[in-house]
Amino acid sequence: MNLILAMLLCVLPGDVKVSLLDGSARSGSLSSVTESAVILRDGNRHTEVSLADVMSLDFSEAGENVAAEAQRVSLRGGSEFSGSGATKTAREVTLLHSVLGDLRVPAEAVQSIRMKPDDTAVRAQWETLRTRQTEKDLLVVTKRDGTGLDFLTGVISTVSSEKLEFLLDGETVPVPLPRVYGVIFGQAITVADKAGAAKVKLLTKSGDVLAGEKLTATGETFEILMSWGKTITGDIKVLQRVDLSAGRLTYLSDLPALREVFSGVDPEGSLLSGLASAEEQALLFGPRRDMAIQGRTRLRLRGKEYTKGLCVHSRTEIAWALDQKYESLDAIVGIDDEVAFQDGGTHAVRLIIQGDDKVLVDRLVSGKDQPQPLSLPLAGVSTMTVIVDYGDADSICDWLDFADARLRISQGK
């Protein structure tokens, strides 16, 4: 895989930003990529970055932005294509792509087809329907009064340029295509479902995602082997990013908790203790993932915003089953800007992190402190427990951020 990636990167144009697994980044003109390193050039200076530490590469001169077309095909392996003229038979789905040409995908690999342009008014409803677990297909239509989406369950046999054949209660019903917002296919276990996670993802300037197993490049073209065995070829200038993070890290906010206990915002015996029920307090001040506790804003530490992380109020205890799969935890820790500067920065929490029965961290974090990087070795740890405890007798607005918290996956596990 390293040699294949090197072939690709040697022909990619322009400056590149290399994001690393520890949260840092390097940038410069791409000089070369060996089997073990990315080498950047800045004038006469060369910087070598270990390929094993690379999470992604972003290119600043990857061609002009291309507007996404109306229809959108999403695959079970994570790929997504915009195009036109989508059709379906029992065996395959076809889509005309402005850059990649005529795409033909096995029907079993397709998760959904959005037939109409993206509509912000119904986008959330469409995405909710797409994530439903259903054995039958969903025919999604726009309500006649325009207030949202509705759906029917059945079997979608064919989709043509004019109509859709829908099997409902044993009877085939032709549905005019103008009424169809999209189709979502049942979650039957298929060869595509059993395939492992994509090893590489290519993101294009038009918003397409190509997720595959193997990447090669010659001249000005790239070739990616998709999960269903087909190789797709395209112009390398359309690429915006090469994502290599799969199998290398997991964001803590994406990992389901083994146990989560919120004990309330005020210590027992304080003046404000008991003013709100435990249920009300949990609803208002329970842990938030990828956002601050109130206002649905991003995590922010000293003016810098983070799209990933946890915002945790004292007193909270969260445990995760790591099952000895991870080698380290990296994060930026501090009191969220939303409350850090109130009352002279006196808000404080006691942070305790345990690996199985061993205490790894025990420190006081206050609003007066600058955000601190946290790096913990976790090799051999089965369960990690984070306790955000009361830091003083008054715990109102004690919001601790675990910004950009990432678990690095042990290789070879």
Short description:
The chain is mainly β and 413 residues long. The protein contains five helices and 33 strands.
What does this structure look like?
This protein is mainly beta. 8% of the residues lie in helices and 50% in strands. The protein contains five helices and 33 strands. It has helices spanning 2-9, 123-130, 191-194, 278-285, 337-340, and strands at 15-20, 25-33, 37-42, 45-50, 54-59, 71-75, 80-88, 92-97, 101-106, 110-114, 137-142, 149-159, 163-168, 171-176, 180-184, 200-204, 209-218, 221-226, 231-235, 239-243, 249-251, 259-262, 288-289, 299-301, 304-306, 309-313, 316-321, 326-335, 348-355, 358-366, 372-377, 383-390, 399-409. The chain is globular. The model is unreliable at 1-13 and 189-195 (pLDDT under 50).
Oligomerization category of the chains in this entry: single chain
Radius of gyration, taken over Cα atoms and rounded to an integer in Å:
25 Å
What is the total domain count?
A: 3
- Describe the main β-sheet briefly: 10 strands, antiparallel
- Please tell me the overall pLDDT: 81
The counted number of beta strands is: 33
Would you identify the regions where 5 or more consecutive residues have pLDDT less than 50?
1-13, 189-195
Helix content: under 10%
Number of helices: 5
Going by helix content, strand content and strand pairing, the class is mainly beta
CATH class of the largest domain: Mainly Beta
Cα separation of the termini = 18 Å
Within the largest sheet, what's the order of strands?
4-3-2-1-5-20-16-17-18-19
Q: Write down the overall geometry.
A: globular
What fraction of the residues are assigned to beta strands by DSSP? over 45%
CATH architecture of the largest domain: Sandwich
CATH topology of the largest domain: Jelly Rolls
> By CATH's scheme, which homologous superfamily of the largest domain applies?
NPCBM/NEW2 domain
